[in-house]
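Many introductory courses stop at the sequence. We go one step further.
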Amino acid sequence: MANARISNVMWADNKVPEVTITFWLIKILSTTVGETGADYLAVNVGLGTLITDAITAIALAVALGFQFYFRKLVPWAYWLSVVLVSVVGTQVTDALTDGAGVSLYVSTACFTVLLAIVLASWYGSERTLSIRHIDTRRREIFYWVTILCTFALGTAAGDLATEALGLGFSWGVVVFGALIAATAAGASIGMNRVLAFWIAYILTRPFGASLGDLLSQSRTYGGVGLGTVYTSAGFLAVIVALVIFVSVRKPVHKESAVQS
C-alpha cells in the first residue's frame, strides 16, 4: 500500500511541455543527436561500444533522477532526459542488430509489440494515454517507459527502411517527413489527437535519424559529409537555444496540429 501511495502522488502541474512547433523541433533535433552522439563517443572519442553504453545509461539514470525529483516541469531536465533516452534507445537497437545479430525485421516487430503492451498497461491503469495530465508518479513512469520504447522502435524501423530495404538517407528524410505531415493533416481533420501524437512521436525518430545520417555520413555513403562532430555539436547548440527560449518565454495556450 505504501508503494501504491508513492507511485500515485499527484502534482499540480503537468510535467510534459506544451506540444507546439518548438516541441517537435527539439524532439527531431534530439533524435538526430541520439543517432550521431553515440557514434561520436564510441568512434571519434574512442571509448568503444561497451563504455559508451555504460556512460550514457548512467547519464540517463541521473537525468531521469532529476526529472522525477522535480515536482513541476523543468525544461532543461525534461529535454536532457529526452536526448539521453534517444541515445540509449538507439544503443539498445544497435546492440541487438550489431551485437546479437537480431534481424531488423524481428527487432521492429518485437519493439512494436512491446510498445503496444506498455501503452495497453498505461491505458488499463489510467484510462488515458494523453500527455496533458502527466501529473502523478505512476503516469510519469508510464510516460518515460513509453518514450524509451518509441525511440527503440523508431530506430529499428528507420534502420529497416533506410538500410535493409535500401531506402537510403535522402529518401528516408522524404518518406518519414511525408508520413509526419500526413499524420498532422489527419489530426487537423478529425483523427484522434492522442493516437496522432504517438504516431508522430514514433515517426520523428527515424526522420531525425535519417536527417542525422544524411548530414553526418560521408559522400561515399550518400551523405553530406559534415561528420558526427559538427552535426552533433550543431544540433546540440540549437537544442540548448530552443530550451532556453521555452524556459524564459511566457506560455501560449495554442494547440499544435499534433497535440495529445
